[in-house]
Amino acid sequence: MENYMRVAVIAPPYPLEEAPAPPLGVCYVAAAFEQAGAEVRIFDFVVSGYNKEKIQKAMDEFKPHVVGSTSVTMSFPQAAQIITDVKEIDPSVYTIMGGPHVSFWAHETLEKFPAVDCIVIGEGEQTIEEITPLLAKGETLENVTGLILRHNGEIVETGHRDFIQDLDSLPMPARHLLPLSRYKALGFPVSIITSRGCPNKCIFCLGRRMVGHKVRYRSVKKVVDEIETLLELGFTRINVADDLFTSNKKRVREVCNEIKNRGLKFGWSAFSRVNTADKETFALMRETGCDCVSFGIESGNQDMLKRVKKGITLAQAEKAVKICKEVGILPHASFMVGLPGETHETMADSARFAKKLDAIYGYHFLAPFPGTTVLENLDEYDLEILTDDWSLYDANRPVVRTSQVSPQDAIDFVGRFEKECEEEWKRLEEGFGKGVNSPEDDLRVEGTRKVGGTFQILEEDLVEQCGAIPADLAKIPEKALSFLVDAIAGRTGRDHAMVESIVVPFYKNGHIRIVNGGDDACWAWTPNPGKAA
């Protein structure tokens, strides 16, 4: 293994219902290993179902020396299980975990999961640059900053590494290692970052601690170069995943003007804060393709906003939504249920304010992740943690209670909102194809039905499972495609026409193709440009 190393980076399962983008953090990690001289593969289990046999086969083919996985809190249990499976398959593999969850739950992870050898804390790229040659030589890592690891039978912490100041020094994310055809078939936006860092102090968020309170920027040229590359790869929608893209209005305008100067045409969205919205900047964003901005408003009660150190006012929220509507951007507002001190009155305030905004909005339940102020200083808040089952920390169910709001109270509150949405959706489904819906609403219904079928095809690997083509059809793509549709419809029990409406565009858009020929012909996902089949 001297001076040469193979590294497998795991993209752990993540619910497709949560609309995952191609995993950006995984791609930055993979790129860092590549830049350090390793041969790297990404084992992606986001758009392909996971089982131990599958990773056994992948490891048999690639024979990695190192396997690493990132995770957020919700996906941590599955990521840890995958690492455990890896160690059972090949005990000689060196295993690493990183990401926001284990960065703030490192000792507990190493104590509970003996299969994990090492944890990379916080931003990992420079740490990876240092550990890669050491691992390739079989040397120990206890002198590398930014790790918590096992050494001589003990858990050793090597200290925290400073944040990376020159983000332009980072390699471009290694998306070429992802199954891009699957992600493009899924149809969700691809994410980029233009900066790292968050100056705000929200007690329920990890941003400030994970990436620092001082915002660090990538150069405008690098950002738009990456956008251009993504468009060349065939993506048509991009989401700017910065904690706060609009923190620096001057720089937002510089990015937008560079997009205009290059004549790039694409749809995009971004996260923002209501106290950073201004009409001139948002109008320029709209001019360059931004059609949706998401605001975390969290509560319709001003005292609650102060308690959680959100740093915004309800008046600013109303103004931001108004600006979006004036310039033609769709505003989306997110509210949180179960914040410290939540009462029936504060929830009612949120419900009234959300409706008053007259914007698309939704609710999430508070999930106090490791590393958040609210979890680390729990005794200071009116809050009780109900479970430490991290798989339940998906913000779709209550994992806390306050003195006045029980889990069932919170469920009932969100349930009333969801019932309104379900009734509206039922009306649209009943009107589908009958000429009573608007064309836009019919498209929404059809699109939602297709999404469910697409999820199943990806999660159950149905192109692979149903892809074998009879020899007499292999040279006739249209008949081979019809055979695939029949096979998937038969396997899933889904309506044949619906499966056809999903699978035919896969072929027409180049996401799937016929490989080999004769008796061995089969359908397969198209490899990335420049990547071997």
Q: Compute the gyration radius: what is it?
A: 24 Å
Low-pLDDT stretches:
none
Counting H and I runs of at least 4 residues, what is the number of helices? 20
Number of strands: 19
CATH topology of the largest domain: TIM Barrel
Distance between the termini: 26 Å
How confident is the prediction overall: mean pLDDT? 93
CATH superfamily of the largest domain: Aldolase class I
CATH C-level label of the largest domain: Alpha Beta
Number of domains: 3
Report on the biggest sheet. 7 strands, mixed
Enumerate the strands of the largest sheet in spatial order, edge to edge or round the barrel.
Answer: 2-1-3-4-5-6-7
Q: How much strand content do the residues show?
A: 15-25%
Summing up helix and strand content along with how strands pair, one would put the structural category as alpha/beta
CATH architecture descriptor text of the largest domain: Alpha-Beta Barrel
Domain Radical SAM core: 184-408
Keywords: Iron, Iron-sulfur, Metal-binding, Methyltransferase, S-adenosyl-L-methionine, Transferase
GO molecular function: 4 iron, 4 sulfur cluster binding; catalytic activity; cobalamin binding; metal ion binding
Cofactor: [4Fe-4S] cluster
Please explain how this structure is put together.
With 533 residues, this protein is of the alpha/beta class. The chain has 3 domains: 6-157, Rossmann fold (3-Layer(aba) Sandwich), CATH 3.40.50; 189-405, Alpha-Beta Barrel (TIM Barrel); 460-525, no CATH class. The chain is built from 20 helices and 19 strands. Helix 10 packs parallel to helix 11. The longest helix is centred in the C-terminal third of the chain and has 25 residues, at 407-431. The radius of gyration is 24 Å and the shape is globular. The model has no long low-confidence stretch (mean pLDDT 93).
